[in-house]
Here is the input.
Amino acid sequence: MSKWLILVLVVVGAFFAVRHLLNSPQGYIKGPSNKDELARSLDALIDFLSKQEQFRWAETLREIQTYLQNPATEVEGLSRLSGLFGGMGSLNDLVFDGAGVDEVGAHLLDAVFRDMKLYHGTPEHRAQWKKLEEEHKDEPPPRIKHAFRKE
Here is the structure.
């Protein structure tokens, strides 16, 4: 077999491998996964809650983060996190004092809820969520609507 034929086969194989990675749902080269996004938004919320002296909530979310980092407990972690957004005494009930602080808290809660719901989603799901947020911007956020759903 000639060196040129081997070189051509290697180049063609590399082309298809890169193309597969670029189009994969995990988005290896496209950017952070939804799991990374949830980890980042949870970190920001935990930091915010700690600064607001909401230590019980911060600790609960740290425990859930631990569950999410282990594939064997990931589903349970998502379920526990989802349960924190509904009913009396939920994360939705938190009110923060200070100019703009409540808005920051609401934004962080919305981000965690979105990233939780998109945890197994694709980039197309994320784009669709963003479009729906814009279309329904004058309505209560999805995390609030979720609290009133009958499942």
User: Anything to note?
Assistant: The first helix runs from residue 3 to 23. Helices lie at 3-23, 34-51, 55-68, 74-83, 101-117, 123-135, 142-147. Residues 25-30 have pLDDT under 50 and may be disordered.
